[in-house]
Design goal:
Helices cover about 5% and strands about 45% of the residues. It folds into 2 domains: about 220 residues, no CATH class; about 80 residues, Immunoglobulin-like (Sandwich). The termini are far apart. By secondary structure, it is mainly beta. It contains 1 helix and 21 strands. A hairpin with a 6-residue loop joins strand 1 and strand 2.
């Protein structure tokens, strides 16, 4: 009987240790950013598992896109830029980032107020720390998820002041047990003096979803913006537009549009349907699931002549 109870206790402890709600497969994060250049958007995608130093890691691909505001005109949208991928390793209630051939603590989900996290040694051979100053719950998709608020500090827990010359982590000061730092993965365990990102540093969490978690949309923000389009939205072209939107079984394009290729992508950028050399008798989308989609129209030279978004009802 004692042996059975001991096994049950071990099993219970193991389940408790791994019961935090970190990102599941097919996870996608969207962030916006401003400052230090033109505003833009960043998409991070959990693309596969990989093994590094005998640890099963999540590979996170990161892409971003800038948009230069114009006076009395649509913004000029730049091309998509691919940043270096991020490799994350989760163990019990902690998530680590792989950097400089080592794993560094990035955040803990089962945090307590007053706890100090040693985020590791940066290139300057000095450590950065953060201190947990509050833990609270917020409802997302019917789940009460923990938000952990952290503040940069010294090794003894003393809060870092603007005049202090010590390494400061760029980790977001709010971390969610499901989504991670609300400031984006480009932030994790970098010093202020160590930023070298083409698209800047994300500073506003927009949306998140994974295979078991429907998309959440922060304050009604547009999750996708320019990230999935590569050029100006269809609304910026008064000659070609899609209708109806939302749509049920068929979509049409204005002005009897002729095109070489129409590609339709799902909400994580995966190609769902392709139509070649079609006229405007209507595009059958009845096989698509309900949800958000983007599309591109290209000519016979593979130039994008229009793109946009629609909702399948």
């Amino acid at each position: 009987m004692k042996k059975v109870l001991f096994i049950l206790l071990i099993s219970t402890l193991a389940n408790a240790q791994n019961n935090f709600r970190w990102a599941d497969s097919a996870a996608v994060w969207h962030h916006s950013y401003t400052g230090g250049g033109p505003p833009g958007y960043q998409k991070s995608s959990y693309v596969k598992d990989t093994v590094i130093n005998n640890k099963f890691c999540q590979k996170i691909n990161i892409e971003c896109q800038n948009a230069w505001p114009q006076f009395n005109a649509p913004p000029i949208v730049g091309s998509i830029q691919n940043l270096s991928p991020c490799f994350l390793y989760k163990s019990n209630d902690s998530v680590f980032i792989y950097r400089n051939n080592s794993f560094y603590l990035s955040f803990k989900t089962n945090a307590t107020i007053g706890e100090i996290w040693d985020l590791g040694e940066f290139e300057s051979a000095a450590h950065a720390y953060v201190k947990v100053d509050s833990v609270y719950y917020q409802n997302y998709n019917g789940l009460n998820l923990r938000n952990i608020h952290v503040t940069p500090c010294k090794a003894n827990g003393e809060i870092v002041l603007p005049t202090d010359t010590v390494p400061v982590s760029l980790i977001g000061n709010i971390i969610n047990e499901k989504f991670g730092p609300l400031s984006g993965f480009s932030y994790l365990n970098f010093m202020y003096i160590n930023i070298n990102l083409y698209c800047g540093v994300p500073n506003y969490f927009l949306c998140y979803e994974d295979v078991n978690f429907p998309i959440i949309n922060d304050n009604g923000a547009d999750c996708f913006n320019w990230i999935l389009t590569n050029s100006n939205d269809i609304e910026k072209n008064d000659k070609i537009y899609l209708y109806p939107n939302p749509a049920n079984d068929r979509i049409y394009f204005s002005n009897n549009t002729l095109y070489n290729t129409l590609n339709i992508y799902n909400n994580i950028g995966q190609l769902e349907q392709t139509f070649i050399n079609s006229n405007n008798s209507g595009i059958d989308i009845s096989l698509l699931s309900k949800g958000f989609y983007t599309y591109t129209i290209t000519d016979n030279k593979q130039n994008i002549i229009a793109n946009g978004k629609f909702i399948k009802e």
